[in-house]
């Protein structure tokens, strides 16, 4: 559990600062950025798996429908999440991406209760209620249906659920996921080139190199997340996630200069309160379980 918590904290800090990286490519279409992200993630993970000498595991996955189908689903879910996130960051919606990842823990708790039979104690239910009220305040203040936030929360929540159900090494699992969407990414490259719309190749050399590094930037937090998901309950993992959107919120205010209303800040403060309540309730529950 402690090792899982450390991995989760590292993953969410990395994800929190990712908007700074994607802003480097504000002139590149989101679809093209995504295709680079998939392709270079596959290359990076392929090298890592080769170094680990795990290609035998990849062959086993390719011949196992029980493993291949869940990994295909998780690959499509994370690719959709990446596309929405990149588009939102480069179109001035960092606050809404933050809201989406604040919503995600509620999705995780719901999935854990419905499908994994996890049973929150009273304190944890209270924390969930506070977080739900906070999200409602934020959504009302936002003034329109936050489709970016809902889409990010749903796609990543289902991705986390899928990862929880797949007993697979983090490196091999991530390589399998990127392999699923690799043909789509390569097909998009071919389409863009045929239509004369490719923009990445016209970027300055330094910017293009930064785009090549998207594989490392993408893969590292996912590796830490996969290790955390294997060692923590889904609901606990979801609440640690507040680290990421809080960093995004601070970036949106102080770096990207997006407008944040007082009501929005109150909602975010309530969510942090729910995190504290949830942590305390979880700790007490663990102590009572050990005492009995």
Question: Could you describe the 3D structure shown?
Answer:
This protein is an all-alpha fold and 292 residues long. The chain has helices at 2-22, 30-52, 55-62, 65-90, 94-115, 122-142, 147-165, 170-194, 205-212, 214-231, 234-240, 243-254, 262-291. Helix 1 runs antiparallel to helix 10 and helix 2 (30-52) packs antiparallel against helix 8 (170-194). The longest helix is centred in the last third of the chain and has 30 residues, at 262-291.
Q: State the end-to-end distance.
A: 20 Å
How many beta-strand elements?
Answer: 0
How much of the sequence is in beta strands?
under 5%
User: How many helical elements?
Assistant: 13
Q: Structural class per helix/strand content?
A: mainly alpha
Give the overall shape, derived from the CA principal axes: globular
Low-confidence stretches: none
Helicity range: over 70%
Overall average residue pLDDT: 85
- Major beta-sheet overview: none
Q: Gyration radius, to the nearest Å? A: 19 Å
Order of helices and strands: HHHHHHHHHHHHH
């Amino acid at each position: 559990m402690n090792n899982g918590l450390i991995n989760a904290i590292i993953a969410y800090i990395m994800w929190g600062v990712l908007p700074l990286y994607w802003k480097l490519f504000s002139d590149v279409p989101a679809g093209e950025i995504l295709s680079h992200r998939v392709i270079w993630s596959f290359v990076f993970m392929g090298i890592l798996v080769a170094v680990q000498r795990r290609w035998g595991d990849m062959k086993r996955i390719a011949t196992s429908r029980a493993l291949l189908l869940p990994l295909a689903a998780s690959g499509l879910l994370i690719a959709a999440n990446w596309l929405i996130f990149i588009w939102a960051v480069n179109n001035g919606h960092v606050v809404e991406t933050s809201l989406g990842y604040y919503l995600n823990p509620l999705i995780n708790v719901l999935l854990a209760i419905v499908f994994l039979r996890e049973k929150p104690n009273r304190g944890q239910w209270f924390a969930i209620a506070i977080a739900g009220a906070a999200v409602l305040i934020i959504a009302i203040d936002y003034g329109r249906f936050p489709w970016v936030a809902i889409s990010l929360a749903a796609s990543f929540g289902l991705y986390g659920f899928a990862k929880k159900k797949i007993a697979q090494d983090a490196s091999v699992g991530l390589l399998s996921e990127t392999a699923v969407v690799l043909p789509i990414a390569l097909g998009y490259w071919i389409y863009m080139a045929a239509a004369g719309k490719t923009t990445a190749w016209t970027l300055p050399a330094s910017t293009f190199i930064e785009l090549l590094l998207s594989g490392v930037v993408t893969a590292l937090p996912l590796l830490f997340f996969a290790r955390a998901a294997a060692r923590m309950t889904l609901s606990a993992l979801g609440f640690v996630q507040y680290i990421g959107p809080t960093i995004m919120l601070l970036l949106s205010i102080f770096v990207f200069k997006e407008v944040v209303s007082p009501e929005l800040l109150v909602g975010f403060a309530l969510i942090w309160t729910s995190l504290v309540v949830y942590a305390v309730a979880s700790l007490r529950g663990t102590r009572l379980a050990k005492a009995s």
